[in-house]
Automatic annotation (TrEMBL):
<protein>
    <submittedName>
        <fullName>Mandelate racemase/muconate lactonizing enzyme family protein</fullName>
    </submittedName>
</protein>
<dbReference type="GO" id="GO:0016052">
    <property type="term" value="P:carbohydrate catabolic process"/>
</dbReference>
<dbReference type="GO" id="GO:0016836">
    <property type="term" value="F:hydro-lyase activity"/>
</dbReference>
<dbReference type="GO" id="GO:0000287">
    <property type="term" value="F:magnesium ion binding"/>
</dbReference>
<keyword id="KW-0479">Metal-binding</keyword>
<dbReference type="InterPro" id="IPR036849">
    <property type="entry name" value="Enolase-like_C_sf"/>
</dbReference>
<keyword id="KW-0460">Magnesium</keyword>
<feature type="domain" description="Mandelate racemase/muconate lactonizing enzyme C-terminal">
    <location>
        <begin position="36"/>
        <end position="146"/>
    </location>
</feature>
<dbReference type="Pfam" id="PF13378">
    <property type="entry name" value="MR_MLE_C"/>
</dbReference>
<dbReference type="InterPro" id="IPR013342">
    <property type="entry name" value="Mandelate_racemase_C"/>
</dbReference>
<dbReference type="InterPro" id="IPR029065">
    <property type="entry name" value="Enolase_C-like"/>
</dbReference>
<dbReference type="InterPro" id="IPR046945">
    <property type="entry name" value="RHMD-like"/>
</dbReference>
Length: 284
């Protein structure tokens, strides 16, 4: 027997509705390594659709290519489009997605950050190994570009270390690792130290919806990561399991779910009482 929701409110309101709005702002997150010109063309298309920001990978072999990537995006998308760059140097590496991956030393990270200053890059994500607190701190103090990271970190103590050592101005806990209640504590620590939180993706479905609620509940959670690698992984495909999927509107925002809890309903046709040969996983 199902139970009716007690408060009948969405999570972001139960958590305080900190930004006073019923919407959040996503950024289009990309994981493949494309040529600078092709990425710039994507950026221009995204902007025409209403998106305000995108994140791209910097896995090129040379510094010049890393710079050319953002130069081309800035040319095509204009000065009012926000660029985030993910270096992925904190440990996680997926060879199929980054075939030209090379580790960075401090000098490469520093030169990249200084070049990105001129291109108004909003953040540089994971430029060095995650526990190299000394060099992360040195790098953050030497650049106006925000450093970001934390997607594989666990426990409040690790995020407190980033704050105490002034390593990252953008904290990125992964909600599927840390959990939403711990993220709320990280939000408080970040706010007290003048930092922002922009969670890692989540699972691209339920976890990302949780991130939307967390963003809507806080004053220091400005961007929500949304995987959107067209045409193979557009965001619409990820949320097709829901009856009421989130839609990026013409102004680049997403309306927060207003139903109780996470406010999402999985399409009924995806459920079955009994597994049948044609519906069972692996059947056919």
């Amino acid at each position: 027997m199902s139970k009716a929701p007690i408060a009948n409110q969405p999570l972001y309101k139960l958590w305080g509705g900190g930004n006073g709005n019923d919407y959040v702002t996503p950024y289009s997150s990309h994981f493949l390594l494309e040529t600078p010109k092709s990425r710039a063309a994507v950026a221009a298309r995204l902007k025409s659709q209403g998106w305000r920001a995108m994140k791209v990978k910097a896995h090129y072999k040379t510094l010049n290519e890393d710079i050319a990537l953002c130069e081309e995006i800035r040319k095509q998308a204009g000065d009012d489009f926000t660029i985030m760059v993910d270096a992925n140097k904190a440990g996680l590496r997926i060879p199929a997605l980054s075939p030209t991956y090379v580790p960075w030393d401090y000098r490469r990270a520093y030169e990249t950050a200084k070049a990105y200053e001129q291109l108004n890059v909003f953040w540089l994500e994971e430029p060095l190994p995650r526990f190299d607190l000394e060099h992360l701190s040195m790098l953050q103090k030497s650049t106006v570009v925000n450093l970001a990271g934390g997607e594989e970190n666990q426990g409040l103590n690790e995020f407190k270390d980033y704050i105490d050592c002034d390593c990252y101005r953008v904290l990125q806990p992964e909600v599927n690792i840390t959990g939403p209640l711990e993220v709320r504590k990280i939000l408080v620590m970040a706010e007290a130290s003048g930092r922002v939180v922009c969670n890692h993706l989540g699972d691209g479905r339920f976890g990302t919806i949780l991130n939307m609620h967390l963003s809507g509940s806080a004053t220091n959670y400005p961007w929500v990561e949304m995987a959107n690698e067209q045409p193979i992984g557009g965001y619409e495909s990820s949320y097709a399991i829901f009856e009421n999927p989130p839609i990026v509107r013409a102004d680049g925002t997403i309306k927060l779910p207003d139903g109780p809890g996470i406010g999402m309903t999985v399409r009924k046709e995806l459920f079955t009482d009994e597994a049948t040969p044609d519906r069972a996983i692996g059947g056919g």
